[in-house]
Structures are given as structure tokens and as C-alpha cells.
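User: quick one, sequence for these C-alpha cells?
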């Protein structure tokens, strides 16, 4: 019996086509499960992020009336040059004057 002739039969081609369709369906099913899991992970992350944002907002410092008046006095920070040290010193002076 010549086994090469078996590959040329219509039944073999149909079986090969059915196998391809089954593999495709399984692949789509696996991918849809992965998408569902990724969506659940995304929802969990969004929930945790919203919770963290609420906690950060609760910790936000609210300036007192005394400090608001001093903060309003500061209109502009004058820098000697473009160096970081100059900017840092300007901020130090601003905060020491405000508090």
C-alpha cells in the first residue's frame, strides 16, 4: 500500500480542514479567556488606584488663614541665574517667609 496516495484523498483534505478549524476555535477561546482576565486585572487596578487617590486627597494639607495671607504676598520668585542652587535658595526664602 502506498501511503503517499493517502494524502491525496478528499477525506484527508476534509479531515485536515476540520482539524484547522478546531485549532482556530481553541486559539480564539484561549485568547478570549486571556482578554477577560486582562479586563478583570484592569478593573482591579482602577479600583485600587481610585482608593489610593482618595487616601492621598484625604491627606492633603489645607493651608490655614494665616498662611494663606503670607502665601498671597509671594507673587514671583526671582532667580539670579538658571542654576538649581539659585532656584532652591529662592524657594527656601519663600518658605521661610511664609511660615
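Assistant:
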Amino acid at each position: 500500500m502506498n501511503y503517499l496516495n493517502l494524502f491525496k484523498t478528499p477525506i484527508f483534505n476534509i479531515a485536515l480542514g476540520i482539524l484547522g478549524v478546531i485549532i482556530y476555535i481553541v486559539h480564539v477561546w484561549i485568547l478570549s479567556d486571556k482578554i477577560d482576565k486582562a479586563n478583570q486585572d484592569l478593573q482591579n487596578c482602577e479600583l485600587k488606584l481610585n482608593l489610593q487617590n482618595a487616601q492621598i486627597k484625604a491627606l492633603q494639607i489645607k493651608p490655614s488663614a494665616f498662611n494663606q495671607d503670607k502665601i498671597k504676598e509671594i507673587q514671583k520668585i526671582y532667580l539670579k541665574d538658571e542654576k538649581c542652587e539659585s532656584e532652591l535658595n529662592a524657594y527656601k526664602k519663600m518658605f521661610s517667609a511664609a511660615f
